[in-house]
Structures are given as C-alpha cells and as structure tokens.
Design goal:
There is one protein chain. By secondary structure, this protein is mainly β. The chain is built from three helices and 25 strands. Strands 14, 15, 17, 19, 20, 21 and 23 form a seven-stranded mixed sheet that branches. Strands 4-3-6-11-8-9 form a six-stranded mixed sheet, with no helix packed on it. Strand 14 and strand 15 form a beta hairpin. The longest helix has 11 residues. It is globular. The chain starts with 32 loop residues before the first strand and ends in a 19-residue tail after the last strand.
Length: 406
C-alpha cells in the first residue's frame, strides 16, 4: 500500500489465482471514516455482480451515536438476456492490472459496440434488498442516528430523509466543518461516493429514506425508519416530489483549508473529459486520449498539485475518483467553494461542469485517477498519478496468467 497507510479503496490489488483458496494481507487503519473495497479485476463486470464490501474505520476519540447503520446503494438487471448481452459485450476487454504494485483498473478497450444502456438496470437495492425486503432501521425517541451511505453502483441516486432534520457530517470519510441542519432536501450520491448523515430521532412513527427519480427501479430503493413501540405517523412515499438538491459547495461553515485557488502549485493539470467513437464503438477520453495513452500526472513527493476537471461529454456524467489521496474541492464552474472545506476522493462531474481540485503528493506510488462509472473506465477514462521518485518493489511473475483478461 501507499506510505501513509490510507485505508479502504486505496489498497493495492489482491490477486488470488485458481490454485489458491486464501490470501492474507494487513494494513494499519489510520484514516477514520466510511470506505468500501471492491474488485479491480474485470471490475466493470465483477463489481456489477456484487464483489465489494464496506470498511468502517472508527475514530479513537469521538462522541458515539446511539445507532450506526451502513446502507449500500446499488442497481441490478432483472432480465437475464440483458445481463448476458452486457457480459458478451464486455468479454472482449482486457482488464489486466498494471505491474507496478500500486495501480489498478488498467482496463484496455475492446468496446465491441458496448454502449451500455442504464435502462437495463431496473432493480434498485439497499444492502442487496429492494422495496419491502429491505430491513427497517430501528430507532428510539431521543437517539442520535448515523446513516453511512455508500454508492456501489453505476448511477447517482438522490435520497430524501422524511420527517427529520439531518446534518451531513462527512463525505468520502472526511468530516465537514459545522454542518447545519437541513430538511426536505435531496442528497445526491454518485458512484463511489460516501456520505455520512446524522439525525435526532425526535418524531415518533414510521418514516422513509427513499430515492427520488423516474427510472423503473427507483421505488425499490427505500428503507423504513421505525420507532420502537411507536405506531403513529405512518409515512407515505412521494418519490416524485420536487425537492432541491443539497449544494455541497455551499454547505457547512467556511474556513480556509489546506489549499487555495491562488497559491503556488508545483504541478497543474487539466483533465478534459470527453467521448468519441473508436474503431470498436464508443470510448471515453481524457484530453482526447484513452488509457493507456492518456498523459499521466507526474509528481514527486511533497508536490502541491492542482487539477482542473472539465466535463465536455454531451450527455455523460463522470464521477472521478483518485486513488491513494484526498483532494480539496476549490471551485465549481469558476465560483470558489463558500462552505466547509470539501475534502473528497470522488467527485461527480455533470456535463458542462468544471471543477478545480488540489491535493498534496504525500503517498508515493503509482495511482489511478479514473471515472467510477466503471464502464467508462473500461472504455478509456483512466489516467495515473505517477511519482517520479518512486520505484515499485513488485516483480511480475512472467508465468502468471491470472491478470491477462479473457
């Protein structure tokens, strides 16, 4: 792993061959927060089929909540033919890992008219269940409740907590400064993102946390919040209600973070996200190139790095994820962040949007910076943060074929 012991999604790939049944590795969990881990071997396919889990790193000294629930959001295809079509179209891709000890998601393209259709995903789940099958969240009046929301799917989901004010206390595992209570606003959670919210159970009855949207599976992504020994105030779902979406760039109390827009940076990089037609179908590009031809971000240990991310795709949303580091979001569409310092490792970039982010190169290695819609990563939207003063001690086995794809 990287030198600073970051946790969760930042671990190097763990490869278990056909002749092996078990492998062990260890790391020090030094960064508290809500994380998740998932396959980086044929990840567009394997993560889609559920090969992932959550990793909660609890702080040593923090006020405890009374209830702490982790809720994983995902979406699935009910039509076996649709899934077979997806698998068939992905079968020509080589998702081999890179031989540098730190990188992952090295996914060469053979799109073979991939063109994945999100409408094939018609079952939306929370912790692998949908609709009435989702286990209710039990609370008692007066309790402080934390919900850890993890999006393991390939679509953003807008969640509405009924009947209560709540605070967004952390994003991607990183705390927010003085979060204010909000009510009847939607929290938009993009692929790869995590949000921790807290509320006080002060409105006895049965309430919902539900997804808003128009897709077929939307009404399945809901969970009941049930007060023990209380039966009044039975909630009604209303996924069509027109509610505002929380603007994270203005949320929380402003203070100067580690980085500012006008300070001096050692490395500056512009990441132009786009689409193009390749010889085998649609590809997703960074600065007009697909991985491995994308230009890496070259850094050395201690560098301050500023990255401008611009989504010039006409229709596609790109949740961009950086391995091994947290970055500070400095501006959106030219306007500086006016809320809490916003520290993240995944950032949802809608068509036409522009963000400026900054990070310190403090974790030597070679790290992926990619779209967490893994179909887009598979189709080329990947680059690397490469440390020029780092040399991997990993030597690939020339006889190992486990990472050669199919």
């Amino acid at each position: 792993m990287g030198s600073n012991g970051t946790a969760g999604d930042y671990l190097p790939p763990l490869d278990i061959g056909e002749s092996e049944s078990l492998a062990f590795f260890e790391f020090t969990a030094t960064v508290p927060g809500t994380y998740w881990y998932h396959s980086h071997q044929k990840s567009a396919e394997q993560v889609d089929k559920g090969l992932y889990g959550t990793l909660i790193v609890e702080p040593k000294n923090e006020e405890k909540v009374d209830r702490d629930y982790t809720l994983v959001l995902d979406e699935w295809m009910s039509d076996p033919d649709a899934e077979s079509h997806m698998d068939m179209n992905m079968s020509g891709m080589d998702h081999s890992n890179m031989n540098n000890g730190n990188s992952s998601d090295n996914q060469q393209m053979d799109m073979s008219s991939m063109g994945h259709d999100m409408n094939m995903y018609d079952i939306f789940t929370i912790n692998g269940k949908s609709g009435s099958a989702v286990q209710p969240l039990k609370v008692k009046k007066g309790e402080k409740v934390r919900l850890r929301l993890v999006n393991a799917g390939y679509m953003a989901h807008k969640l509405h907590l009924h009947g209560h004010e709540f605070k967004i206390v952390a994003t991607d595992g990183q705390p927010l400064k003085d979060p204010q209570p909000i009510k009847d606003e939607l929290l938009n959670i993009a692929p790869g993102e995590r949000y921790d919210i807290e509320f006080i159970a002060n409105n006895p009855g049965e309430w919902l946390l539900e997804c808003h949207g128009d897709m077929e599976g939307t009404d399945g992504m809901k969970v009941k919040i049930q007060y023990e020994d209380q039966t009044n105030n039975t909630d009604k779902e209303n996924a069509k209600e027109n509610l505002p979406v929380v603007d994270m760039t203005t949320y929380g109390k402003y203070e100067v973070g580690q980085f500012t827009l006008d300070q001096k940076y050692d490395v500056e990089y512009t990441m132009d996200l786009g689409t193009a037609m390749g010889k085998d179908g649609m590809v997703y590009t960074i600065n007009g190139k697909t991985y491995p031809d994308t230009a890496p971000i070259h850094v050395k240990t201690g560098d301050f790095v500023k990255v401008k991310i611009v989504n010039n795709s006409p229709m596609d949303v790109h949740p961009m994820h950086l391995h091994g580091h947290f970055f500070q979001v400095l501006s959106k569409n030219g306007k500086p962040v006016t809320g809490s310092p916003l520290i993240k490792d995944s950032l949802n970039v809608n068509p036409g949007e522009e963000y400026v982010v900054a990070f310190k190169a403090d974790n030597p290695g070679n790290w992926m910076f990619h779209c967490h819609d893994l179909h887009h990563a598979s189709a080329g939207m990947v680059t690397e943060v490469k440390y020029t003063d780092y040399k991997s001690d990993y030597t690939p086995d020339p006889n190992d074929t486990t990472n050669k794809g199919e």
